[in-house]
Amino acid sequence: MASKRLYFFVLIFLGLVGLLLLYKYINPIEHALFPKCPVKHATGLDCPGCGGQRALHYLLNGQLSQAFAQNQLLFFLAPYIVTGFYLQLVPKPTSRELKLRKFLYGYRAIQILLVLIIAFTIIRNIV
After folding, report:
1. pLDDT in tens, 1-12
2. What domain count does the chain have?
3. Which residues cross the membrane (predicted)?
4. Which of 15, 37, 92, 126 is deepest in the core (most CB within 10 A)?
5. What confidence tier does 75 reach under pLDDT thresholds 50, 70, 90?
């Protein structure tokens, strides 16, 4: 059972590495390979993820200010998501790791995260 789980995570990891390499070397602005935002296309409004592909490209190429200008939310969510993956991969989590997982990814934390994402979306479309 553990080997199937490890195999699954290795496949996910390799897929993520492949995607990161793609985003590092191919600029989403210049190529039609990358999907465009359907929300932006349909409404003209920026969704919380708009600019995320461009931000990731700039971030992977060390252009932090350009990345931040594309999508500010990415800078706050990226460490949060990476921490979540780490806490999910820990085979035998300590009580400290379990408390951290509950604090960061529990019901209340998800509610707060959703409010922040909605607020970000509203503010970015007003400003």
Report:
1. 568 878 888 898
2. 1
3. 7-26, 73-91, 103-123
4. 37
5. confident
Q: What is the domain range of residue 66?
A: 2-126
**Distance (Å, whole) CA 23 – CA 100:** 31
- What is the DSSP secondary structure assignment for residue 58, as one 8-state letter? H
| pTM (global) more than 0.70 | yes
Q: At what angle do helices 107-126 and 72-89 cross, to 10 degrees?
A: 160
- Residue with structure tokens 């999910």? 88
Contacts of 17 (CB under 8 A, 6+ apart): none
**Digit-coded pLDDT (tens) for 86-115:** 888 888 899 999 999 999 999 999 999 999
Cβ neighbourhood burial of 93 (10 Å; 0-12, 13-18, 19+): middle
Write the single-letter amino acid at 94. Answer: T
